[in-house]
Amino acid sequence: MLVRSVALNWDNESVLAVDTGVHIAAINTLLKESVTSDIRPTTVDHGPFAGLKLKHKNIEANTGDFLLDTLGAVLITHPHIDHIAGGIVGTALGSRKPRCFAGLTSTIEALKAHIFNDIIWPNLSDEDDGVGAVTFNRLISGGSPVLGTGHSEGYVEIGKGLAVKCWAVSHGRCEHKYSSQDHNSSTYSTSPREYTMRDRSAPSSPQSRRNSALHNTIEGIPQLTSEKQYTVVNSTAYFIQDKTTLREVLIFGDVEPDSISILPRNQYVWNDAAPKIVEGRLKAILIECSYNDARPDDKLFGHMNPRHLMQELCVLAKEVENWQGGERLRERKRINERGEVEYMRRGGSPQWKRKSSSLLKSPLSVVSQGMGMFTHGGVDGVIDEEEEDDDGSVDTVFSAAGPTKQNLLKGIKVVIIHVKDRLLPEPYDPGEYIMKQILAWEKEMKLGCDFVLPVAGTSLYL
Asked: Most buried of 30, 57, 106, 335, CB within 10 angstroms?
């Protein structure tokens, strides 16, 4: 993904890339599709690169100019190969200046140890006796308490016209013996189903956030225990702010729902996002939804599906409602006997119940598509908690933990990314099917967001 401040009109270093799984090939393809004239110099008049000046007849040369001049930095959400491959290969193309890779310290250390190590890839970095073609910018989860003021507090300027604040989020777990070389994970000795999260309410300032109990565990301290250990994989959510308008976009890397995570951290992001929505500054959220609702929780592997995505957005809506009412304290938390803040149910997510009869009649039934099986409460895994009515059906209602108003996220674009192709002869498009399920949930939940399923080259002006 590419993000820019329109006010800077394609100036040098005015574009940020968020992850680089494909990167150069995709940019080159989109430029080819955008150019209709052989006259040079020329200005692209349509498509995602509208307004970009091209000097060369050879499209590849123009792609090179874009990478070397217009692109300011790369934000890496996590160092999995599908999120870094294109950008890493591109470092071999030469440069007029060091290419900046920015991310959490755990992400940068993983790139150093496992990519730029003279084994997988030459050490092109400016660290550990590298050649200096790549430089790193280590970001602090929750933002630096000494950077920025006002609406930009905690943000760091990267490139031109854009400022960034990130939060560490969780992207699944694996059973793993902790090692000092594990730069991209956090180890916890607990059953993932027994984990009780600590206070997920974000304090009002970056400094107090950095002092909170949960924030101190964000990048992980190993627990000494004889119990089975699970390693939490770190990912990142980025708030990117246009310095001219103060408008923002929130872009998630791969992320799992708090309700099934052994280290739930999405609440920190929603706490930060809610006042931005109330003030009209946050315009869009790009978030993954990798699988459809037929996928059981134990096969999500650190990803989202529609039921969990909508559950997370419902948590955001509740935070917006709290801010609209001038309330920061959440009535659904209590102090446990250890002095920790414990949520009334795992993950602090809203509870809902669904009438099974309406789902069975729905055209989105996974049974009608031959994709899964029903339980008595609906599609596998849709129901978190059930309560039968007198007629034996299960009704759809929100508990006190959820928002009480409708359309709390009205005007927010929610862009669905990271849809996984199944490469199977199925009679439907995975993205379109996921969108149908999301819209079915939205019809009941009435959050008010505008859901978007992008294709390659989609542009959003915020």
From this structure: 106
In eight-state DSSP terms, residue 98 is: P
DSSP assignment string, 135-198: EEEEEPBT--TTS--GGGTT-EE-SSSEEEEEEEEEEEEEE----TT-TTEEEE-S-TTT----
pLDDT tens for each residue of 115-173:
999 999 999 999 999 999 999 999 999 999 999 999 999 999 998 999 999 999 999 99
How big is the chain, counted in residues?
A: 462
Distance CA 366, CA 284 (A): 29
Residue type, 331: E
Please say whether the beta carbons of 105 and 173 come within 8 A: no
Query: 181, 113 in Cβ contact below 8 A?
Result: yes
Provide the b/e sequence for 240-277 (b: ≥16 CB within 10 Å): bbbbeeebbbbbbbbbbbbbbbbbbbbbbbbbbbbbbb
For the chain, domain boundaries: 2-139, 150-352+398-452, 353-397
Q: What is the pLDDT of residues 230-283, one digit of tens each?
A: 889 999 999 999 999 999 999 999 999 999 999 999 999 999 999 999 999 999
In the three-class reduction of DSSP (H, G, I as helix; E, B as strand; rest coil), residue 453 is classed as coil
Token output for 31:
């430029």
pTM as predicted: 0.78
